[in-house]
Prior knowledge:
Number of helices of chain B: 5
Strand content of chain B: under 5%
Number of strands of chain B: 2
Distance between the termini of chain A: 62 Å
Structural class of chain B: mainly alpha
Shape of chain A: globular
Strand content of chain A: under 5%
Structural class of chain A: mainly alpha
Largest sheet of chain A: none
Largest interface: A-B, 48 and 32 residues
Oligomer: heterodimer
Number of helices of chain A: 8
Number of strands of chain A: 0
Amino acid sequence: MAGTAARLTAGAFLMALALAAGAREHSAPQTPWHSLSPEQQRILGPVAPEWDRMPGFQQQRLLGAARQYPDMRPIQKQRFEQRIRDWSAMTPEQRRAARQTFQGLRQLPPERQHELRERWLRSHPGYEKHGR
Amino acid sequence: MNEKDFAERIRPWLARAEAQVGEVEATRLRAARLRALDAVREPVRLFGLVAVSEATAQTIRYSVIQRSLLWLPMLAFLATLAFQSVRESDPGEIDAQLLTQELPPDAFLDQDFRQWLEQPHG
């Protein structure tokens, strides 16, 4: 009896935590474009037209990504600028799925990661020619 | 007649009477037996502070261990959450990595790519 009660309490607690985490993400306040620093506006320039329509949690993620910008290598900066607009145009579900797959890739040994990257690039020759 | 012989002699009588003892009486007898055993045992010092009976000490130890085991999965879960929140304190860090590495974000939505990822490798 006490065991069942404890299990129910633990289940309710875990559910509450999960809901709280979801609610916290979706309740992030919006940050108006004009309140960004000139540096942030420059980095996030490609998404400026859509910025004020984005939900707060998406803006926070993009601001977080922009904070990494100064430490990026030139090729990474170039990729960031090219991809950020398409990235922010994806649905939240697509972004979540992409992050999940990306994190799955990162958990593999480096040789296997390299092998899978090369395999994808070989199967998308158009991308290799223009986007790499 | 020593104590052991006496016990042997009365055992059949007690065994015969046992069948007539109801559930409630059996429980009360069991409790009384435990109290009696508890009374003759040496007191135990708990954590070197207070002297309690052996039975009480056992109950406390059992209760502490049982509760600890009950809370252990919860503590492990909270520790994992705390670890993740420290590791991912910047929610944009993964996005930045995803956007700047070799493959475009579309690749991670590619069904083929996801299947390759799940394939076992040697």
